[in-house]
Amino acid sequence: MVELKYPNKVNIYEVGPRDGLQNEKKIIPTKIKVALIDMLTSCNFKEIEIGSFVSPKWVPQMQDSLEVDRLIKKKKNIKYPILVPNLKGLEKAIAENIKTICVFTTASESFSKKNTNCTVTQSLKRIEKIIYLANKNGIKTRGYISCVMGCPYEGSISFSKTANICKELNDLGCYEISLGDTIGVGTPIDTFKMLDQVLKYINIKNLAVHFHDTYGQALSNILASLQKGIFKIDSSIGGLGGCPFAKGAKGNVATEDVVFMLNGMNISTGLTLKNIVKISKFIFKYLEREPSSRVTNALR
Ligand code: HMG
Ligand code: MG
Q: How far is the CA of 256 from the centre of ligand 1 (A)?
């Protein structure tokens, strides 16, 4: 048997309250979002993306992110990043004393237009200004790249393009870059090839992977990423999620499914499966549907 090396420990970055809920059609009351985040806090998640300061015309579900930030019970050792698309969003973050923001761009020109109404070059220019001001205000910036292995409008994406955008975000000063397979079309071999390109430019410590599970490839892609040495994984409670501007995009990989797999591989996450399943049941009970997580459904 071939022995593969895996990291001993993995950092789970929880995106449920933002990437998970942003796609929900019915507006969710602020108190439900706050309860969800407080439960995640009490479960020992170290990074919870709690919302976004984007245009409410574009993503109405996130219009109460400021209130959410004010109402949640924060713990000192936990990061509560907020997604920011432009200087207007950053100004809110500065006024609110947010410590970590996330910026986002993409490897696809068409997706850039649909998601942020600008070209990739324009989005990088926006990001440059955001990071400059964020740094001046002591705010750390995480970067996202969407469509790293495929685009809903353009189809396949060149992995060298993904790698070049990644290098640009790194050069601009993102402390971490999350590689998003927005519509979940990548397979493990694509993941190897894409990471090979990206790792030419970026230290593995500064990379995270962000898989949506549209075609059921997310866990396999995570396994492939672990084999490459990646140890930061974005996931969403219950498998909530999707992107309003990526037709057909399904939820992110479910946090409890990732933790179940990592538990089985003796890779530590600092999280307890049964507590995560409880949170998953809570939010899906509110949404009045079954979670897409296989683990939560199996443990019913
Ligand atoms: P625009 O329409 O070109 O910009 O949108 P605008 O400057 O003309 O603004 C339009 C209106 O929005 C104006 O209001 C602005 O004031 C307001 P009006 O004058 O008409 O009343 N506005 C704002 N309001 C609050 N906060 C702001 C803000 N900015 C403008 N920050 C813009 C450009 C970038 C604003 C828009 O396209 C936008 O908000 N896009 C965000 C889209 C989004 O949130 N997508 C989902 C997140 S990305 C994702 O999910 C992928 C990821 O998970 C990784 C992966 O899976 O691949 C990260
Ligand atoms: Mg996403």
A: 30
Q: Which ligand is nearest to the CA of 241?
A: 2
Ligand nearest to C-alpha 106:
1
Hey, how many other C-beta atoms are within 10 angstroms of the C-beta on 212?
Answer: 29
Shortest CA distance to 246 belongs to which of 214, 201, 208?
214
Atom number of ligand 1 nearest to Cα 59: 44
Q: How confident is the model at residue 243 (pLDDT cuts 50, 70, 90)?
A: confident
Q: How far is the CA of 8 from the centre of ligand 2 (A)?
A: 26
The 8-class DSSP code of residue 262 comes to H
Amino acid at 89: G
The answer to whether the predicted template modeling score (pTM) of the entire model surpasses 0.85 is yes
For ligand 1, mutation pick of 13, 54, 61, 94 (most atoms within 8 Å of CB): 54
Quickly list H helices, 47-141. 65-71, 87-95, 109-116, 120-136
Does 243 participate in catalysis according to the annotation?
Answer: yes
What's the CA gap between 59 and 20, in Å, rounded?
13
Whether pLDDT at 62 is above 80? yes
Gap between the Cα atoms of 246 and 151, Å rounded:
8
The answer to whether residue 1 scores a pLDDT higher than 80 is: no
Q: Which residue has the tokens 């713990």?
A: 75
Q: At what angle do helices 120-136 and 109-116 cross, to 10 degrees?
A: 60
What values do phi and psi take at 97, rounded to 5?
A: 60, 40
* Buried/exposed code over 83-110 (b: 16+ C-beta within 10 A; e: otherwise): bbbbeebbebbbeeebebbbbbbbbbbe
Please state the atom number of ligand 1 nearest to the C-alpha of residue 102. 58
SS3 content of the chain, % helix, strand, coil (to 5): 45, 15, 40
Which residue matches tokens 């990548």? Answer: 186
